Amino acid sequence: MKKKELLHHKLAEISEVLRGKYKESDQTGVLAGTSGIALFQFYYSKFLDTDEFADTGVEILTDCIERINNGYGFPTYCSGLAGTGWVIDHLEQQDFMDAGGDELLAELDNYLHNVMVSDIKEANYDFLHGALGYGFYFLKRYENTTSVLQKKQYENYLSELITLLNELAETDGNKVRWLSVLDRETGEKGYNLSLSHGMSSIVNFLARLRKHDIFRNQTDSMLKGGIAYILSHKSDDNNSASLFPSWVQNEGDDGRASRLAWCYGDLGVGVSLWQAAKSLDDKELGNTAVETLRHAARRTSPESSMVRDAGVCHGSFGNAQIFNRMHAETGEEAFRKAAAFWIKDGLEKAVHKDGYAGYKQWKGMDAEWCGELALLEGIAGIGLSIISYLSGDNSWDECLMIG
After folding, report:
1. Phi and psi torsions of 307, nearest 5°
2. Could you give the residue ranges of the DSSP H alpha helices within 281-368?
3. Alpha helices, H only, 169-212
4. Are strands 175-177 and 180-183 parallel, antiparallel or unpaired?
5. Model pLDDT for residues 3-48, shown as the tens digit of each residue
6. What confidence score (pLDDT) does residue 198 get?
7. pLDDT tens-digit readout, 66-108
8. Which partner for 247 in 29, 63, 192, 294 could form a disulfide, CB atoms 3.0-4.6 Å apart?
9. How far apart are the first and last CA of the chain?
């Protein structure tokens, strides 16, 4: 079969597996739970111009909401209520469904706000599992609610988060940085530069806030200082595998070998700098972002990319999605070619006969490969990346702060 046929066939496989197995997930969030699985089915239905898979999406989302009504209360963006809320809000904004989001989601506000404040006061700013995830969700609600009262409430939530984030910041000249725990087991701390858990997510989030005049004065100095800190750790050696480290523990002593992935390294840094450049209308920063991603596009060997599996978080289809999005935004031919390369590489990784649609996730050197369903690490995200590649519709990748 030709590549396009293989991709269509893979989408059908993925949809069937997800429909049959989604109840095996015990989480509801967008990235690690059932609402992200529903998101795939809605986009697959749109892609094929049929109601069939949207009906499946409604079935999955209804089950998800029933779990919440029956007491499911895990709050995080990645795995819980904030992520479920993001999906419902997104589906309404993209005209997939009318769920009465303002009324339905308002019931979560007080609880999620309390958790957000508690997390940021404990210096847990993590996008996936901490304060920034709630902040990202509240920003989308601020942008999309039709209620004047709710909009003002979300404005207050976000302003409070910005203030608390500023209190956590360490300032050194024109640079701003945030300390965080790098290893939960050892308690080791440092300055994480990643998009998944680190400072790139802060820069990315502040850039989105800054687009609204009401937050501009609060965010400007932190945004520019965070950018300056990240750029201070960019390698001048274009022959190095990666231009940015995953994290910094001791200034002047940061490793360069970050893998090619959304979660850690140059791709997450690059797309976050790109978001910041657009928000600040900074052409020089935009050129730096593109330069970083061009360098990343050349990392196609297994040795230089360190890519083991196919998932969105740190695998082939996540790389494809980022390059696909950047080609759409810049028209750079290098990004189109890189997206095509990683799509092909991802198809070639469907070799696990006991996996889901042929896929398993690599869990580490001493761990077994595991089948995964969800968006971030499993086949739902693989399917969404394929849909974007075939259709040019990248709307869903906002959930990863790519678009």
Report:
1. -85, 125
2. 283-297, 302-305, 316-330, 333-348
3. 199-210
4. unpaired
5. 999 999 999 999 999 999 999 999 999 999 999 999 999 999 999 9
6. 97
7. 999 999 999 999 999 999 999 999 999 999 998 788 999 999 9
8. 192
9. 32
Residues 160 and 5: their CA atoms lie apart, in Å, by: 50
Structure tokens at 100: 């009465």
3-class secondary-structure state, position 254: coil
Using 50, 70 and 90 to split pLDDT, how confident is the model at 254? low
Count how many Cα atoms sit within 13 Å of the Cα of residue 346 in the half-sphere of its side chain. 34
Query: Which amino acid is residue 225, in one-letter code?
Result: G
Alpha-carbon span 120 to 128, nearest angstrom: 13
Please state at what angle helix 266-280 crosses helix 316-330, rounded to 10 degrees.
Answer: 30
- Tokens representing 180 are 């965080």
Span 159-170, mean pLDDT? 98
Yes or no: say if 21 and 376 are a contact pair by the CB < 8 Å rule: no
Query: The tokens of 368 are what?
Result: 């077994």
Find the Cα–Cα–Cα–Cα dihedral 307, 136, 21, 47, rounded to 10°.
-80
* CA dihedral (208, 214, 220, 222) positive or negative: negative
The rounded distance, in Å, linking the Cα atoms of 318 and 263 is 9
